[in-house]
Amino acid sequence: MPGPGPHMMYAMGSGLALTSLTNGRFSPHHTLTYTINAFFGPDIGSFSEWLGSLLGGSAQSLGSNLADYIHDPFYYILILGFPLCVLYSWVSKLLLQRKVLDSVSGASLSRRQCFFLVSAGCLSHFFLDHLFEENGHSTTYTWILSTGWWKNRAPVNPDAVVVVGFLCTCLLGGFVYINRVSSVKSIQKQSYQSLNLMLIIVSLYCLWCASQIYWVNPRRPAVGEEADLGVLVFLAAYFFLPHGLCIMSLNPRHHDAEELPL
């Protein structure tokens, strides 16, 4: 299981990249909150379990039960999301008032922003945990691999080639069409349309994979030997979603400030 180093480096690296790309709208306060939750957040349960083992008795049982609930991508947000967003918002305001940590915009984090960052940090924590814990035999990682084909050499089904080829062609062709050279340009509108296109294609792609894996009897390889369904679901939940939450937590744009277009 990854330790403090990988969790913090991954989250802080992502935070610094967002700070640079947004010209400070993702402030050092954002990065610090995101990093702390990506590292120590869900592992609060493990810490309580260790502390309970030192105290012994009922404290050990309580610490063990708490660890099971807290070290979970859903229960961590459900149980600690609101208390932590209140705490981090207060700490952000305190750090700004004491001039300990700069926020670029001069504003501290709101509770809403902190909730997004707490959730993003939690999901980013499990992005690494699911890939590198339990010697590669975690439940999530095992499910990802199970969406591939492992019985023998996967047969090449013509319908799979047609469907996957059609979807990939639509994705690339649609992207080129949306971002074609034209006299009237709106980067925000083009990005929004491109995102919608990608979401439609990935939904159809996952639907195709799921139909071949879970609905067809006997099961058929959806995309050769590839575990595309598991990979796409995992990336959506533990990579794109947390970074999307980070983007949703950005400070408002100040039109009088010189910023990079985003």
Write structural notes for this entry:
- It is a single chain.
- The protein is mostly helical and 262 residues long.
- The chain folds into two domains: 152 residues, no CATH class; 74 residues.
- 68% of the residues lie in helices and 0% in strands.
- The protein has ten helices and no strands.
- Helix 1 packs antiparallel against helix 2, helix 8 packs antiparallel against helix 9 and helix 9 runs antiparallel to helix 10.
- The longest helix is centred in the last third of the chain and has 29 residues.
- It is flat.
- The C terminus is likely disordered.
Helix content: 55-70%
Structural class category: mainly alpha
Name the overall outline: flat
How many domain modules?
Answer: 2
- Counting DSSP H or I runs of 4 or more residues, the number of helices is 10
What is the percentage of strand-forming residues? under 5%
Question: Low-confidence segments, ≥5 residues, pLDDT <50?
Answer: 255-262
Distance between the termini: 36 Å
Tell me the total number of β-strands.
0
Transmembrane segments: 74-91, 160-178, 198-217, 229-250
Keywords: Membrane, Transmembrane, Transmembrane helix
